[in-house]
Design a protein that fits this description.
The chain is mainly α. 72% of the residues lie in helices and 0% in strands. It has 18 helices and no strands. The longest helix is centred in the first third of the chain and has 30 residues, at 17-46. It is globular, with a radius of gyration of 23 Å.
Length: 442
Amino acid sequence: MYILPHPALKRLPQIPPSRRLRIELLAFLLCLGLFVYGAVTQGNAQNTEMHTDQDAYIAYAQNMHNSDFNYVGGRNRMPVYVSLQALFYDPATMDDDAFFTVGKRVNIGLAILGITLIYLLLRKRVEPLPAVNITLLSGFSVFMMKAPYFQAEILYYILIFLVFIGMLAMLNKPRLWHASGLGLLCGLTYLTKASALPAAGLFVGIMLVQSLVQRSFRPALCAMLFAVTFTAILWPYISTSKERFGQYFYNVNSTFYMWYDSWDEAKAGTRAFGDRNGWPDMPEEQIPNLSRYIGTHSISDIWERFRHGVRITWGYMATQYDLELYFFLYAFAIVFLMKQAGSRHVQTLLRQHWPVIVFSLCFFGGYLCSYIWWVSGAGAGPRHVMALVLPALFALQLAVQALTRLHRPEWVRWFYYAIFTLVLLDMHTILNYRIHVLYGGA
């Protein structure tokens, strides 16, 4: 089922279906082999020691295993990923280095499963060549670089993409049974990384507005089912957070650290006063939050922090990962297609699919602003913004297909071929250069 209307596909050369399937499978296995080679090479070249927060993830997984999966944690990292890694930990035969090696292999296997699932989902929702383009681009530019690291990003990238697809489907056609399943999936995503929480809140809000605008109770009922299921799966975790830390959705990053101007400030602030063990033991007026940040910073200070974050984020996207060209090409294609389709057709699409469009704009705009804010203060790497790459490519492709539903210009086919050619050229650069010199764990 397509989230947005799918255009009629051009007839392919008359190749027998069984032979076409064998060719597709062979090409996929070849790309998978290159993916494994790249991930292993990246790990051997750049990830031989437990840099960044990998040692913290390892310690968390070990504690989770040794406590029979009852370890509370410091409310910085979330429990699902470390629980998965803990299943592969054997304290009798593994020291930290051995577990580190096993964990990297588990992550590569997880990335392979994720890329396979992503391709199968894309094949059902977008045209064949764009499905290949998006899978190869996200797989080799994002997933391969993050795969050989003992970090939760790979699992989170997979889950947040599934959540994004599910939310678009629900906004396009609300289904009660789908709402419960989506709440479960979003809950698991939150328990992988707390960054999923704003998406859940945004989705419920848009669904309620949709219910009012359309004068239908179904979207509101779906939103309630989603919220109930989402809360139910989180309840053991958030109730413990409330009991021990004072807030249901307590997370040191979003509660405290994002309101400091640097990581050094955070280390000297709430972190030094026990924020990983409970509510920090320090004067209340010294604990950072949004209102205090606004009260102690001028508009120019806030604007400069955003500017600094934009420069950092652009540097990651344009100089390290070379992804900006694809987004520019898609943006130009969409603008040109809107001009060709005419205002009447565009207005019809906006009226028909406004919940999807509003949700997508708020989703990407909100997350991009929050990641820009975070990277400027904490000095973090590109791991956060990279979570948006796959959902953004998918959303842009849906927009292209919606605009070509009634009339498909010939140049769109060549646009897909051009993207495919650029992806192949990028794969050559990645496999021959980037995996050897760029540290993917930041």
